[in-house]
Amino acid sequence: MTVRFADIAAERPTRDSLTAEHATIAGLLDRGDRPGALAAWDAARRRYDTWAALVHLRFAQNTADPAAIADRDYADALSPEATELEVAIKRRLLADPDRAGLEAAAGAHAVRLWACDIATFEPAIKADLEEESRLSARYTALMAGAQIEISGQTVNLAGLAPFAEDTDRAVRHAAEQKRWAFFAEHGDELDAIYSDLVAVRHRMATKLGYPTYTPLGYRRLRRVDYGPEDVARYREQVRTHVVPLVARLLEQRRIAFGWDRVRFWDEALIDPAGNPQPLGGPAELAEQAQIMFDRMDPRLGAFYRRMHEGAFLDLPNRPGKAGGGFCTSFPTVGMPYIFANFTGTHHDIGVFTHEMGHAFQNWESRNQPNIDYLWPTMEAAEIDSMALEFLTYPHMDLMVGEAAAERFRRMHLIGALAFLPYGVCVDHFQHEVYANPTATPAERHAMWARLEKLYMPWTDYGDLDYPAKGGRWQAKQHIYGTAFYYIDYTLAQCCALQFWVRSRNDRAATMDAYAALCARGGSAPFGELVQSAGLASPFAGNALADAVREAAAVLNV
Ligand SMILES: [Zn+2]
């Protein structure tokens, strides 16, 4: 039977209801019933996560709705309470001297994750966590509220995308002028929100006994098998192997277009004939996607039918909607949900296939034994999403038409490569920010400007003063919302590119390896998941160099 999104309901928990639930679980542990306690706890977490997912989704769907705002505030306030109770159970389970028995009952990786989690929380940081959520919501609401006049229309930041890649250079320039005028206008507020976020994160780290926020940030992302040194080495690989390639690609484009130089507002126009556009709007793309996924794999096709028929998709951009795209899930029913902001550009296709990768993974791993395994940690989750972007390449005629399919693939591949230097720059910036938590806003802007020259030396902002002075990072939601969550996309891109290389040789076998990886969900840490799929670790050796060499050959650069 098809579950419909409209039928999903979740009772609103209270502090008292959560406390009562946890008392029941503690009682089961008191009586020595560990299996009973684990089962009751898993069910309680599924109920809570389903409720929280609904609240955050409804807020994202309409950030101006007073009821949605009130619910989100309520959830933000309750979240530290829920964390406290959850950490108490994890501590109690981990205190059991029978660690082998616990690992057998709950899964060795789950136990490792809990050991990581309990080092990220003490009741003393509850108010800080709440403040962090509040600040992050302020950023989301500020961005969502942008109203920009361009070419006789009023659009939000997501709605600028079609203008930012218009074939008319003056329109692209105007779009970037408008975008950065918005950031300049709100620069002080954006700096203040971020200063407060850095301060509250540093304060939490100090209270928990960490020298800076960095080790705490890594633990909050449940990174159990690599650290900042590995990530720094990876950034260096990007600098060595990708930055020169992207520079060559831009020079190739400059010549093809006959531009005097490549300005910042030119970078989004990748294809001299105009970036290929989707064949239709959200409804048409949703229909075409069914044909595409059916052709790719019966598992994928059947799953997408459930998503589509059950209305687990919210694709069009509209006023008041939060920016970006994401996939969330309702673990009581085992169904994911895709949120996006389609604006009629090729990004719609990229976002669609990306979020479908997340959704398919969540679905494939729905029978994993516990809630900790339904999603992998984020760098591994992004392999599942980014790989699907590449695996859909042979079917792009369904999305952009036969004539534009090859041009779409080329544009997407260039975009994937050009993303890497930016992605590692966002990461490097945050390492510097949290190593220097008392830096002033001006110092942070200078940090960004310096790093940008390292990773994107070609950037030419022309008369765009705000980003020219180091303000570009403020447009990146992740820097505000989830510190250190961004390198994840670049690590995953290295793995997704490997799937792409393999699929060029054997499409069916690669699809099977991909589905198998999805089904493993989060049952192992990043390194093990990567290895299990036969991929080379981004941290080791030549994984990136090999994939980039293949891409350079395909792109003839
Ligand atoms: Zn993603």
Describe this structure in words.
The protein is built from 25 helices and five strands. A three-stranded mixed β-sheet has the order 3-5-4, sandwiched between helices. A hairpin with a 4-residue loop joins β4 and β5. It has a domain at 5-118. The mean pLDDT is 96. It has 557 residues and is mostly helical. The longest helix has 34 residues, at 402-435. α3 (66-95) runs antiparallel to α6 (126-144), α6 (126-144) runs antiparallel to α9 (187-207) and α12 (243-257) crosses α18. Bound molecules: zinc ion. Zinc ion (ZN) is lined by residues 354, 358, 382, 385.
Q: What's the total count of β strands?
A: 5
Radius of gyration from the CA trace? 23 Å
- What molecules are bound to this protein? zinc ion
Strand order in the largest sheet: 3-5-4
Condensed summary:
The chain has 25 helices and five strands. The protein is mainly alpha-helical and 557 residues long. The protein has a domain at 5-118.
What keywords describe this structure?
single chain; 557 residues; mainly alpha; 3-stranded mixed β-sheet; two-stranded antiparallel ribbon; binds zinc ion
List the helices and strands and how they pair.
Blueprint: H1 15-30, H2 34-61, H3 66-95, H4 99-106, H5 108-118, H6 126-144, E1 148-150, E2 153-155, H7 161-164, H8 169-185, H9 187-207, H10 213-220, H11 228-241, H12 243-257, H13 282-296, H14 298-309, E3 313-316, E4 326-330, E5 335-342, H15 347-364, H16 378-391, H17 397-400, H18 402-435, H19 441-455, H20 465-468, H21 477-481, H22 487-505, H23 507-520, H24 526-532, H25 543-555
Parallel strand pairs: 3-5
Antiparallel strand pairs: 1-2, 4-5
Helix pairs in contact: 1-2, 1-3, 2-3, 3-5, 3-6, 4-5, 6-9, 9-10, 11-18, 12-18, 13-14, 15-16, 15-23, 16-22, 16-23, 18-19, 18-22, 22-23, 22-25
Bound molecules: zinc ion.
The site of zinc ion (ZN) has 4 residues, from helix 15 and helix 16.
